[in-house]
Amino acid sequence: MPQTPDQNALRAAAIHRLYTLEQSERLTRSRIIGVADAFGVDPRTVDRWLAKARANNGTHQPQQRACFTLTPHMLDAVVRWRGNATAAWRELRAEDHPVPSLPTFHRATNRALTPGMRAGLRGGEQARRRFDVSGERDRHHRNYAWETDHVEASVKVRVEGHIRKPWITFFVDCATSAICGLAITPQRPSREAVLVAIRDAILIDEHHGPFGGIPTFVRVDGGKEFLCGTVKEALGVLGAEIIALPPFTPEGKGNVEAVNGAIKKTLFAGMPGYTHAPTLRGGKPVDPDQPLLPFEEFVRLVLEWVHRWNHENNPRSLKGQTPREAWDDDPALIDNVTAEDLHTYTLERHGKPLVISNGGVRWRTRNYIADWMHGRVGEKVHLRYLPHHDHRVELYDPQSGRYLGAAVMAGQATRGQALSLKRARRREADRLRTQLRKAEKNRNTRYAAATRPAPPVPLDVMPEEEALEHLRALDGFDPAAEALPDLIQLPEPDTGWTLPLTPDTAPPPQPPTHPEDQP
Question: Does the global pTM surpass 0.85?
Answer without folding.
Answer: no
